[in-house]
Amino acid sequence: MFDLRQSGEWLPADVSIRWTESGRMIHPQVERAIDAAWREASARLGAKLFDGPMCRLEGIIASPRRLELTLSRTSYKPFLGTNLHNAHLADEFGQQVLANPVGLSTALQSADGWLLLGRRSDSVAYYPGRVHPFAGTLEPHDPLDLFAEVRRELREELSLDDADIADMKCIGLAEDRHLRQPELIFHVRTVRTREQIQSTLDLAEHDSIYAVASRPDQIAAAMADPALTPIAGASLALFALAKSAKK
Predict the structure, then answer these.
(1) For residues 49 and 120, what is the distance between their CA atoms, to the nearest angstrom?
(2) 200-210 pLDDT, tens digit each
(3) SS3 of residue 67 by DSSP
(4) How many Cα atoms occupy the beta-carbon half-sphere of 116 within 13 Å?
């Protein structure tokens, strides 16, 4: 389902980013698969398909006090053609042929004690109808601020502004075993209640809120729900791990 690659608690001052050239290996057969996947998606989606910029994870060093990321630039087309539709190519040609863009997901905790995820609409590119964290992908900016990017995603999907966020920390890196895509998970506490957040949900991407009481027994029960995407399960697991570490 998912693998937890790193866990901890990192605030903005603990995180550093270094840019480098892309280490993605170019193989003719892989590039043909990317082009074929893009043509199929273009025929289906037309102008809705956009080769937007993304950040490839080249390396990570984690310690209790520091999280150091090495990134390069990639885009949606190689992501769609490798991780999203042809992650199995890594078994034949090696992990380095994958686009591996960095995803951003939140374990969003409401003021009244719920962990909130979204049930994805049928129009999204992957995992339609499944339960997934409020999230997005990291876009390249200079300077790049991971926490500002998370705030941007929450503003777009839930209309949360800075005053609505009580605190935020990065709590780990997970990987969906199917997509093999790295995902940074953040614990975000909001001053809004579950009901208030439900009222501002952007219905273009999510149909509804999926709420889990932030207690160990309820988290464990939710993680057995097959409706959850792997990264939804990872966000709950990392939240529970961070919470138990404080006891």
Answers:
(1) 18
(2) 998 888 999 99
(3) strand
(4) 25
Q: CA 128 → CA 44, 172, 244, distances in Å?
A: 16, 25, 32
3 state DSSP class of 19? strand
pLDDT in tens, 209-243: 999 999 999 999 999 999 999 999 999 999 999 88
Identity of the residue numbered 72: S
Is residue 149 within 8 Å of residue 186, measured between CB atoms? Answer: no
Burial 34-52 (b: 16+ CB within 10 A, else e): beebbeebeeeeeeebeee
Q: Name the strand (E) or helix (H) holding 57.
A: strand 53-62
Q: Could you tell me the fold of the domain covering 2-245?
A: Nucleoside Triphosphate Pyrophosphohydrolase (3.90.79)
> Taking a C-beta distance cutoff of 8 angstroms, is the pair 192, 110 a contact?
yes
Q: Which residues of the chain are under the pLDDT cut of 50?
A: none
Q: How far is CA 72 from CA 20, 75, 175, 190, 246, in A?
A: 5, 10, 18, 31, 34
For 141-201, give the DSSP string: -SS--HHHHHHHHHHHHH---GGGEEEEEEEEEEEETTT--EEEEEEEEESS-HHHHHHT-
Residue 227 DSSP one-character state: T
Residue 171: CB atoms within 10 A of its CB come to 25
Question: Contact, 105 vs 231, CB < 8 A?
Answer: yes
